[in-house]
Amino acid sequence: MRHHDRHTHHFHAHDDAQHIEPCDRRGHGGEGRKRRARFFGHGELRVVLLDILTRGASHGYELIKEIETLTGGHYTPSPGVIYPTLDFLEEHGYIAFSDDEAGRKKIAITADGEAWLDHNREHVEHIRARMTARAIGHELRKNPDLKRALDNMKAVLDLRVNQSEIDAQTLKQIVGVIDRAALEIAQL
Question: Which residue ranges have biased composition labelled Basic residues (predicted)?
Answer without folding.
Answer: 1-12
